[in-house]
Amino acid sequence: xxxxxxxxxxxxxxxxxxxxxxxxxxxxxxxxxxxxxxxxxxxxxxxxxxxxxxxxxxxxxxxxxxxxxxxxxxxxxxxxxxxxxxxxxxxxxx
Length: 94
What we know:
about 90 residues, mainly alpha, about 65% helix
């Protein structure tokens, strides 16, 4: 496999995982706060989902009963990066 084919395959798999994460997590995030992440807020919720994907290290939480933690995870992740604290502990939804 050439380097170009390898790069294309990596890019394609990353794009598919991002689509999957977004497709699964968008309605779950909207269920937490429809006004903040709901209809008409697509670009804002896309940005929030990108941050959430980084915070969760591209893992989709299995247990939907812990979805109430998603806004807390977002806030903690954003605050840790604003202060430059790259060693902040990772919060999970499990």
